Amino acid sequence: MNRSATTVVLVVAAAALAPPALAAQRSADPTIPVPETSRRVQAEPPTVGPGGGRIQLYEVWRVGAPPEMLLGWYGRALNRLSAIKDGPIDTSDVRMGDLRPTMSYHVTYHTFENRCADSGDTTAAAGDTTRPCKHWLFGKDKHKLLENNRVFIDMGEYVERVTFTWLTREMTGELLRRQVEVRDTGVSGDLKRYTLTTQITLIREQLEPPTSTPTPSP
Prior knowledge:
The chain is α+β, with helices and mostly antiparallel strands. It is built from three helices and nine strands, in the order H-E-E-H-E-E-E-E-H-E-E-E.
């Protein structure tokens, strides 16, 4: 796909990812939006969350848009939070009932090293002379695949994964950890095909149980 065709694809994707107030599916947690054209897929939740707590919510969605665009979409959709790139997440800083907690986000970019694909082994790096390799996956092929189908950001980087994480303490004292993971799923394993699809995983986990029951309103 040439650059002009890529631009058309992104314009179409941008239309699908309209402003958050107008375009949001409903997850089971109303504080975590997903783009309008996303579709939910079946997924087995882990027994323990990424923060080591009890899973309360685990949803997996897929959307036909590049992760670079979703990085910006979630930045706007979660603009009520105070976003800090690679910021610390400290449970001692979480105030009860805080409506604007600090959100930390981390971006992982695609890398383009050569890998051995014999028998599904993609851990051997190019230049490893301890064992022969019959089938290499070349980083230049992966780069070309992304270059033909996506628009890079920053200094020529392509987003592989983004995680947004924030903590809230409810009025009952319950400490919750929410996370949105955006992961690129468009690159085929053999680096020959690209599909415009990104996976979104929503997680809410309980790090600390309630210490009290909420006081009913008069």
